[in-house]
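Tokens as discussed.
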């Protein structure tokens, strides 16, 4: 009964955020339905990735999808930690803090990566990798969106669903890494040690630190 009571708190603000996020998907589809369909078939075809920096409408879609990801992923992290009883209450104020830190943290990470690439003349080589990585993150945020709705508005099997989301997150991350390495095999073969070090420093550690910060601050 206690677990059920924890779960059925007011979710009005979450409903509004999910509606706004869904609206962003509608906008992305309206910008260019062809590119959006290719994006949704990312695991089937790599057409969307191959048009990197060749189409202005693709850039607009990528921006909108990144906004969607920036809204949904902090909420997903927040709800997962809540369902695992690492956080006691779902509050808009705490979500906004997580959202602000998420945007600043990963925005700074992106700017740092871009600065390093430009300074060392690596931008032509690494820019496609950065784009593809961001594309997969955006794609995963859409895959998790219906699961997020289940976690928030469903009161049955919440714990099982939550652990399922955690396991799925790990599996999708490993799959994305494998696909990206296969697409950039030449780059990986040139410096495998530095590539692995980069993955640990810029791809894995930030998410772990973000989750720890959420647990401590909320």
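Sequence:
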């Amino acid at each position: 009964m206690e677990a059920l009571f924890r779960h059925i708190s007011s979710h009005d603000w979450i409903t509004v955020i999910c509606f706004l996020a869904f609206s962003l998907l509608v906008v992305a589809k309206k910008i260019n339905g062809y590119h959006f369909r290719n994006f949704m078939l990312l695991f089937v075809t790599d057409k969307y990735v191959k048009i990197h920096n060749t189409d202005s409408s693709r850039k607009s879609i990528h921006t909108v999808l990144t906004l969607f990801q920036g809204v949904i992923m902090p909420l997903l992290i927040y709800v997962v930690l809540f369902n695992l009883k690492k956080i006691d209450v779902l509050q808009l104020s705490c979500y906004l803090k997580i959202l602000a830190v998420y945007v600043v943290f990963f925005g700074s990470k992106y700017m740092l990566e871009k600065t390093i690439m430009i300074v060392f003349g690596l931008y032509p080589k690494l820019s496609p990798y950065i784009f593809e990585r961001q594309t997969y993150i955006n794609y995963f945020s859409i895959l998790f969106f219906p699961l997020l709705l289940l976690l928030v508005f469903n009161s049955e099997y919440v714990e099982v669903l939550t652990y399922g989301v955690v396991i799925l997150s790990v599996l999708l991350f490993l799959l994305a890494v494998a696909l990206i390495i296969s697409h950039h095999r030449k780059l990986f073969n040139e410096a495998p040690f530095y590539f692995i070090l980069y993955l640990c420093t810029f791809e894995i550690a930030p998410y772990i630190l973000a989750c720890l910060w959420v647990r401590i601050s909320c």
